[in-house]
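To: structure subgroup
Subject: Chain for Friday's discussion

All,

I'm putting the inputs and outputs inline so they're searchable in the archive.
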Amino acid sequence: MKIKDEKAHCPVDYAFKRVGGKYKGRILWVLRDGFLRYGELKRAIVGITPKMLTQTLKELESDELVSRKVYLEVPPKVEYSLTKTGKELIPLISQLRSWGENQMSRNKS
């Protein structure tokens, strides 16, 4: 079931259902500059298992935040990129990243 098909209680609830979780924001962030293949994503997302990466990519694709392009060649080549809607999230993720950096630096002392 698509997340967007689930009933949200408010706009914040709706947004967090689509991008919340441990890996979705990180995947969206690493895709901000263009296309990446599955292996490149796996290397870029520290600690993610192949199963979780596959599941999360499917959810992001289902929610139309990430697009998947398959090239018919041997071996198969698949690239992932942000959709227009996914790209709209990058400034917000950037702000969250800045906030996180500030909080991390405060907590080091």
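Points worth raising on Friday:
The mean pLDDT is 90.
The two ends are 44 Å apart (CA to CA).

D.
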